[in-house]
Design goal:
This protein is of the alpha/beta class and 286 residues long. It is 31% helix and 18% strand. The chain folds into 2 domains: 110 residues, Tetrapyrrole methylase, N-terminal domain (Cobalt-precorrin-4 Transmethylase, domain 1); 170 residues, Methyltransferase, Cobalt-precorrin-4 Transmethylase, Domain 2 (2-Layer Sandwich), CATH 3.30.950. The strands form 3 sheets. It has a 5-stranded parallel sheet, with helices on both faces. Strands 6-7-12-10-11 form a 5-stranded mixed sheet. It has a two-stranded antiparallel ribbon with strand order 8-9. Helix 2 links the parallel strand 2 and strand 3. It is globular, with a radius of gyration of 21 Å.
């Protein structure tokens, strides 16, 4: 059997009992190492599991699935994913390839940022479409995710923004020259994502577009959700662009229509509690 096992969001001990039993008895154990990170590294996992863990990078998962599936018809193979196995579309593709190869699979779920984001106090059933905010480059500043945020705002829904991760990425020059030289890992911070959104708002206003949210819109920054040192900060988009939430991973939420209870909860995490004094109910446009 080929097992896709969610690890949760905190440390090595967040794996489920069912998942741990599979890991301890599997022929090989892989750790998917590019869509997210765990606060504990590979060595801590190996210490807790009492066995070797093989790092599976993007190339292996997307282009060498035959190696992942090797002997899965005779032995159990474990594929570990931070959060929940279906938190990234990559893993749906892996399941499709397993079925096409005649490999039986089973999924063992766990918590992901998609449900753990509720720790900030915003109600999960009032979240809209999730968006990803990517790193900008000097010559490439995409902003298509703004339209999805705007759509959520117009419907009064909160928007969870997943922030970019760059692991085992090549520079354009090294890619063109075929050199297997990789850039240091990079993880987008909340303040960087908020700053990009503020720049997008300025651009939209200069184009005469009626913006769906403003620098005064209430937002929430989250870092290391599920870990002992998780941090949650709420405030305006402008305030979060100036706030340091420390080490990765970070996520950003743009609040939609808020119930008074949600506002009371966010006030507990406020950069400046007086920011919330004017709200009894609030919408995206502040």
């Amino acid at each position: 059997m080929f097992y896709l096992i969610g690890l949760g969001l905190g440390d090595a001990t967040d794996i489920t009992v069912k998942g741990l039993e599979v890991v301890k008895n599997a022929k090989r154990v892989y750790l998917e190492a590019y869509t997210s990170i765990l606060t504990d590294g590979k060595e801590k996992l190996e210490e807790f599991y009492g066995r070797e863990v093989i790092l599976a990078d993007r190339d292996m998962v997307e282009q060498q699935s035959e190696e992942l599936f090797r002997d899965a018809d005779k032995e159990d193979i474990a594929f570990l994913v931070v959060g929940d196995p279906f938190g990234a579309t990559t893993h749906s593709d892996l399941v499709i390839r397993a079925k096409q190869s005649g490999v039986q699979y089973r999924v063992i779920h766990n918590a992901s940022i998609l449900n753990a984001v509720g720790c900030c106090g915003l109600q999960l059933y009032t979240f809209g479409e999730v968006v990803s905010i990517v790193f900008w480059m000097d010559t490439w500043k995409p902003d298509s995710y703004y339209d999805k945020i705007a759509s959520n705002c117009h419907r009064g829904l909160h928007t969870l923004c997943l922030l970019d991760i760059k692991v085992k990425e090549q520079s354009i020059e090294n890619l063109m020259r075929g050199r297997k030289i990789y850039e240091p890992p990079r993880y987008m911070r909340v303040r960087e994502a908020a700053s990009q959104l503020l720049e997008i708002l300025d651009k939209k206003k200069s184009e005469g577009v009626e913006i769906a949210f403003t620098e005064n819109t209430i937002c929430v920054g989250l870092s290391r959700v599920g870990a002992d040192n998780q941090k949650i900060v709420s405030g305006t988009l402008r305030e979060l662009s100036e706030t340091d939430l420390g080490e990765p991973l970070h996520s950003l939420v743009i609040a939609g229509h808020m119930h008074p209870l949600e506002i009371d909860m966010l006030r507990e995490f406020a950069v400046d509690p007086t920011t919330f004094d004017k709200y009894s109910e609030a919408h995206c446009v502040g």
